[in-house]
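User:
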Amino acid sequence: MAKPRLSMRKIKEVLRLKYHCSLSKREIAHCQISRSTVANYLWRAKQAGVGWPLPQDLTDQELEHRLFPHQAGLPLQTKALPDFEYIHRELKAHKKFNLTLDLLWREYKEQYPEGYQYSRFCDLYQDFKKKLDYCMRQDHRGGEKVFVDYGEGMTLVDPKTRKPITTQLFVAVWGASNYTYCEAPSLPI
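Assistant: Predicted structure:
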């Protein structure tokens, strides 16, 4: 049996406190639940004809279906999702022609008039872009390039004199093989 997505225990407790204990919404809200949520649960129970005590044979799934009929099953996809891979490819391919997300949204709306409005379309596209795996692949021929960096290193302590020794760090990496050479020569103080 599937586990209900909503906390039926909280909803049942709200109904019990309201109808059995005659508490106000404000008093119920002191049980770590917001007043607007309490009001929402009570309104939904009234609309569904659910009172207190609940029938013994009423399961959590049935209660959820009565109070939240559109949420009880799997979420229904009412609007067509845009093809974000196509949109992303088009934006990259036609960057120099000033292709915009607005133009692609208009194309989407022509195909799906009941589709998402522009702001939601943009939000969904931004969510899609966050999931992309970006990487920058660079190919280097053997012996062609070496990458070098030189800068501040660490401050070491001479074990005999206990004086600090300032070092600088030199690093070189071959582009093709990623073999690394590193040296930290000490400088006179």
